[in-house]
Amino acid sequence: MANKDLRQLDTPHTHLISAFLAMESPDCLLSLARVCGGGSVTESVQRFIWDQCIGKAVSEQNGNFYRPYLKRFLKKLIVEVESTGAYVLDEFYEQYATFMISVKDDDMAKGLSRILKWVSFLFPDDCSKSGKLVIPLQCSLNLLEGDTGCSIWPSSLFLSEFILSFPEKFSGKSCFEVGSGVGLVGICLAHVRASKVTLSDGDLSTLANMKLNLDLNQSCLKSGLLEPTREVQCKYLPWESASECELHDIMPDLLLAADVIYDPLCIPHLIRVLSIILRQRKAHSHAPDENFEHLEENIAGTCEEKETLNRHLKEYDSLHSMSLCTSNKTSNRWRQTNKQGPVAYIASVIRSIDTFNYFLTVAEQAGLSVADLSEEIQVLDLLPYLQSYQRSNVKLFCVSCSS
Ligand SMILES: C[S@@+](CC[C@H](N)C(=O)[O-])C[C@H]1O[C@@H](n2cnc3c(N)ncnc32)[C@H](O)[C@@H]1O
What we know:
Elements: H1 11-21, H2 26-36, H3 43-59, H4 67-83, H5 90-102, E1 114-122, E2 132-140, H6 154-165, H7 167-170, E3 174-178, H8 184-191, E4 196-201, H9 204-222, E5 232-236, H10 244-248, E6 254-258, H11 267-279, H12 290-304, H13 306-320, H14 330-336, E7 343-349, H15 353-365, E8 368-372, E9 394-401
Parallel strand pairs: 3-4, 3-6, 4-5, 6-7
Antiparallel strand pairs: 1-2, 7-9, 8-9
Bound molecules: S-adenosylmethionine.
């Protein structure tokens, strides 16, 4: 979907088309359409929806817009306009009739679960020449596909907003992401001209989908839809089996991760990976590392028995009395990033306080400090049209070596 000719749109229309491209729910689209029409879906708003959204999607030769979604949106739209007694565009009826014959609603059941979405970051006028960055991403309708890595999670939206809000923090830096999923964060890093961008994941189908997305964005780049950026590389990196030697080869200035703190079984492995990478430039001594020994014990435990881990979790709960206990030295950490060695920025939705406290405890045992940046830094709201994205639920942490 080309966006070149849409630069002159007002805010409500920009929000409507951005929400459509991101496949927001038909209800969300209708509420944005009403804003465009000053309270109702007027004939001119319908014309806009036809010319710039539905009609345009249908007429695209490659037809890669998910048809059942278009059908659902059209139906809601027709019902809404009819209910007000207003005139409904003929094109809507004609297209809906065509969809009735040609589009079944059970495509998912037939195995067609991959769809294409466009995430549009809308910059305040003074921030960007073009005003927006539109990123096409293939993802899955099934949240669990590819070990959850084929969907766009809110933490990667927030981490992307963070990167685009503070481009100077990432520009010229080599960046490495773990658990990268669809690859959105890497595309944003390339956009702000990080010197090197490597994405990684431990799921092979996620990795294949990520590569496809990087190619997709490269071709948008060639066709002039995106500004030239650096190439993004992909790496297969399951935390459990990543060797120390392999991890030692990764020497980024910055580590990143979004929505990777959710499975207690994976946490010791994730911390081991973070710890080895973050330690690269700190420790040159060959002395055994006490913090590491703790970590290895944790990992051995989790591999042997799930019950052991659950017992650990209960102990950690009582230790932390159900509260978040991140460092209160946040301000210093944010200001000093990169002065004392690499840091990791981790965006996360805390779905289980137990799991998160377990992450903090294992991190502490590994000699990592975790600072909560969420209150301190003002990340630009670049996705104001995405009603499904609860950005206030996402926390941003800075992880660094404390010893
Ligand atoms: C919830 S998804 C988040 C994806 C992406 N960062 C985002 O926020 O949209 C978690 C990601 O971590 C990856 N992951 C989970 N466990 C992993 C492990 N043990 N080793 C490597 N990657 C893992 C999954 O494959 C998936 O891509």
